[in-house]
Amino acid sequence: MSAQPDDITDPELARIKATFIAERGYWRPWTETMLRACPGFVAQYAHYAGYPARTGPLSPRMIELIYVALDSSSSHLFESGLQTHMKKALEVGVTQADIFDVLHLVAVQGAVSVGQAADVLAELVGTNQAAPIDDALQARIDSLGPAHALSLAAVARMDAGYAEALLDFIEKGRPGTGLSPGERSLVQVALHACFTAFNPGATKQMLSVALSQGVAPAELLQAIQLGSHLAVHGTALGANVFAAVHRSS
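Predicted structure:
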């Protein structure tokens, strides 16, 4: 079968395409395929995916920073989306320090599960009481506070060197300027609440931290909502594969 032409002459399809671009800010080969195969999907997805950004309280700057975090997260690694949102982020005033502060949070995300798993290991082998934590290391853990959803006690008892290295990375690995504490919490809520790496314990902890920092519940809900429609990247993959198979058959 021959490929479908790229031009859209049907007025309704053209309207749906224009609405999608206005809502989402892009048009890709997969959306072209979906428009021709299932125009209702494209129309309704544009409304659904654009709803949080269109109606929520977060600024365009914060929205784009969250998208940068989600697309660059090791649980997603969606390069084309990251390019789109990083470009938009710079257009709405995001600074280089903001972006690299977000990327630092993306890197720290993996350590949260290490702490949680170490707690389980410590419980099973009985090391919770076995090795006291050095006072200086304990002071560093205490000074970190709840800014990250990290459980470091078991890690510090079993491998103090790892805990020291992790704390060094957290304290010294981010740019000198960047996000405010509340903004960092919003990014972490989005990362831990996203279905690609959903972590209920970390999500609950970061929600509590953010609320204590004065972040509004509506802002937190929007940060959570922004991760949902990343699932469409699976749809995009399927549509692109279908188009390739369709052209070759």
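Summary: The CA atoms of residues 11 and 17 lie 10 Å apart.
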